[in-house]
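User: I would dearly like some help making sense of a protein record. This is the protein in question:
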Amino acid sequence: MKRIFLLIPLTLIAFALSCSKGSDTPTPTPLPTPTPPAPTFTYTLSNSGRELVKFTSTSTTVVNFTTDSQLKKVESIADEAFKDNTTITKIILPNTVESIGQGAFKGCTSLSHITLPENAAFKKINVRTFEECRSLQKISIPNSVAEIDMYAFADAALSEVKLPDNLIYIKEQAFAGNKNLKEITIPKSVGQIGTGAFIDTELATVKVLATYPPRLNIVNTAQGSVGPFPIKTLKEITVPKIATDDYRYEDAFWSLYGYYINRNVPFKPLVIDKTTFTIKVGEQEAASISGSNKYGLKRDKATEEIAYIAITPDNKILGVRGLKAGSFQATFYDRISREEKILTITITP
């Protein structure tokens, strides 16, 4: 019994010494994580240091102007400063930038993200600024921008575009060739849209916020009239309901797209009080018409020697005059609603 008694305290003492010894060992202090060095770029500045003349780094993928001691002070970017750089994927511009030169980012085929400056002096997206930026899928343009110049975003990869609230002019082919662009909202501030501004896109829906129709630049070619929007893919143009007739019928430029404007609002019906004409050679007959006041006529060319068909300048009267004995049918249609009426014409000797 005594041996057992002696062993217990010896064991406890050994355990206590062991614990005491362990507690004297200092806890190692973790080393601080080193801060990675800021990326270094190679570029050329103007003598004043306020303009980026040329960005010359060829392996950089992300360019954040705000982290570079010199670039964060830049106020302008020269023409073609980044042209044909195929490695950069992301650019963040400082709010000090007031202007970007022509073709500054043209051909930057890997560029998928660009942060534009929030600066009241930044008024214009210049000619070909982002042309052929084939990885650029989204763009939000600051509200300070009033003009988007020719080919500014042509042949990029845009599928989502946020136009600025103070935009006034979208120039010729500014967004042409963006194959994934299917819808666009035109701010109420826009006063003019250039020829082919959205041509060769997949644009199906256009929303125009202005009550007064913006001016459209239309060019007449051998293949027909060309305006800002692609007829081939267009499904609907929505405008303020109160302005439906102004866009459809009153505005000479928008009438090209009259059929697509507010499709849920009924069109003026095409009414013609007479569709069958039987007259002698040398005689003429008339019928009153009403509708959009924009009409067309489809007939075989060979029938032109049988009868002369014309509409009075006020678009109120359709007249037929016999030229030669014969009979034929022609299609009279409303260019806006595309409603058709068949005319049956017989000319007797």
